[in-house]
Amino acid sequence: MNHTKRHNDSKKNGHIGLNICSLLLCASSLFAANVQAHTNQYSYEKNERVSVSNILGDWHIKLIERKGILFYVPRESENTQIQINNNQITGTAGCNHFMAGYIPRSNTQIDISHGAATKKMCSPKVMQFEDIFLQIFTGLFTVEPSFDGVVLVHDDTKVYLVR
Predict the structure, then answer these.
(1) Which of 153, 157, 137, 138 lies closest to 50 in space, CA to CA?
(2) Any signal peptide, and if so, which residues (predicted)?
(3) How far apart are CA 6 and CA 9, in angstroms?
């Protein structure tokens, strides 16, 4: 009898373990489906071509990479949004507004002209980020896809934009 009870207990524990594994498998499948459903509708596959025509509209600056150094948007930043429309780029690089013109040079390249910006005082971190952004955001940029948006590439500089 003792042997039978142990056998039944191990069967119960086996079923419990199997049920837990099934539950975890189901939960991970639901999580993966949820992540897939919430993937940015503007994300591009790495081998997908991005053109100047499909970068029009509103974007947020995610980060800047310059000479291998990453510059993230400071938490203190009010906004880092840019709008690309009608050969004009306008937006906010932290707390100051800026504008610059651009000319499409090919299907995947834009030539951004020197722009202008307001100069109100911000926190030092935000001002540093804005200075870096405004210094590098001029010249011939190639538009490339990224996982969650696009990257504007100029020499050793990359500006990551997300919707």
Answers:
(1) 153
(2) 1-32
(3) 5
53-101 pLDDT, tens digit each: 889 999 999 999 999 999 999 999 978 999 999 999 999 999 999 999 9
- Which of the listed CATH numbers 1.10.443.10, 2.60.40.1510, 2.40.128.270, 2.10.110.10 matches domain 55-162? 2.40.128.270
Q: Rounded to two decimals, what is the model's pTM? A: 0.70
- Determine the pLDDT at residue 50: 84
